[in-house]
């Protein structure tokens, strides 16, 4: 299968030459403006598909309120705010995303979730959260984002830094499939095209290995099959405590 996979990947790469050229001359940056609009349109449908999984994921969020009873959540790669409806009432939410064009959709979604307190929107990537103080938040949320960050290890370092002792990082990420499956085959073959269409998302990452190596005191992680298209069906879900 490995030879066939390499051959098919080369074919897809050739077919993607126009996309490679568009990226090389800088025109791909225009897609950055339209990507939030597309995500806003599909977010509700995606939430319906994985509603039970997200409900399960965030069930324990209230347990991580600080001694004053306040829960401050920082979401990395917040996008359009698809997770807001799952956050406990009264939570203070800090949103970050490297794409500034998400902000108008984010504010609209926050208006529809007035059970939350919107703190601010920070334009930054997960690897560089320098504008957020050490040990300043009770919970960090990252869902379907570690597939596209440039450096998973550095992103997790930043998560650990900004979490208060006893705080928790909640995650839901699609990952690479088992190597014996056809899903694994197509994840690798279609990767060149998928990366362009999904704004840098890589479906071949073994994200769980980075979580297992991170310096959290406790890790609750499960592999699941999410009710999504086959390329992104393999998922990990859980939380890690600092």
TrEMBL record:
| Molecular function GO terms recorded | S-adenosylmethionine-dependent methyltransferase activity
Question: What positions does the domain Methyltransferase type occupy?
Answer: 74-171
Q: Which range is the signal sequence, renumbered to this chain?
A: none
One Pfam family recorded for the sequence: Methyltransf_11
InterPro entries linked:
Methyltransf_11, SAM-dependent_MTases_sf, Thiol_S-MT
Q: What name goes with this protein?
A: Methyltransferase type 11 domain-containing protein
Q: Upper lineage ranks?
A: Eukaryota, Metazoa, Chordata, Craniata, Vertebrata
């Amino acid at each position: 299968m490995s030879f066939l996979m390499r051959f098919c990947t080369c074919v897809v790469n050739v077919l993607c030459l126009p996309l490679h050229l568009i990226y090389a001359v800088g025109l791909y940056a225009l897609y950055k403006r339209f990507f939030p609009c597309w995500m806003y349109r599909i977010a509700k449908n995606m939430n319906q598909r994985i509603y039970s999984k997200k409900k399960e994921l965030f069930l324990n969020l209230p347990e991580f309120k600080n001694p004053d009873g306040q829960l401050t959540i920082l979401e990395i790669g917040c996008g359009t705010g698809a997770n807001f409806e799952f956050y406990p009432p009264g939570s203070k939410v800090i949103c970050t995303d490297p794409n500034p064009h998400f902000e108008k959709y984010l504010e609209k979604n926050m208006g529809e979730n007035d059970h939350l307190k919107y703190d601010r929107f920070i334009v930054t990537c997960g690897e560089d959260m320098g504008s957020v103080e050490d040990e300043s938040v009770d919970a960090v949320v990252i869902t379907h984002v570690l597939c596209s960050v440039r450096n998973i290890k550095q992103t997790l370092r930043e998560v650990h830094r900004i979490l208060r002792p006893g705080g928790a990082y909640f995650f839901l990420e699609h990952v690479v499939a088992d190597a014996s499956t056809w899903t694994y085959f197509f994840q690798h073959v279609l990767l060149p095209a998928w990366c362009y269409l999904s704004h840098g998302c890589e479906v071949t990452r073994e994200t769980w290995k980075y979580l297992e190596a991170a310096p959290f005191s406790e890790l609750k992680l499960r592999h699941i099959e999410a009710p999504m298209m086959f390329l992104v069906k393999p998922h990990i879900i859980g939380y890690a405590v600092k």
